[in-house]
Design a protein that fits this description.
By secondary structure, this protein is mostly helical. The protein has helices at 12-24, 29-42, 49-60, 68-78. The protein has four helices and no strands.
Length: 79
Amino acid sequence: MPGNLHIRNLDDDLIARLKRRATRHGRSTEAEHREILRQALAHEEEPAFDKLAADLRKLTERHKQTDSERLLREGRDER
């Protein structure tokens, strides 16, 4: 599903450079923006779930963990 992206507070010089680049490539400025984003993200790999899970475990290893079963039981008892 197509969406919109609005970028605020760009330097005037950057805007002018983007417009010149679009002209050189024979595209509208908006089409040039889309192409720049496509190219920038083309080789970016999404991390695997296992990597994300390992990173999360590493981030939370020093924090006390509460067993989810206990939390569910406490929630039911409060009703």
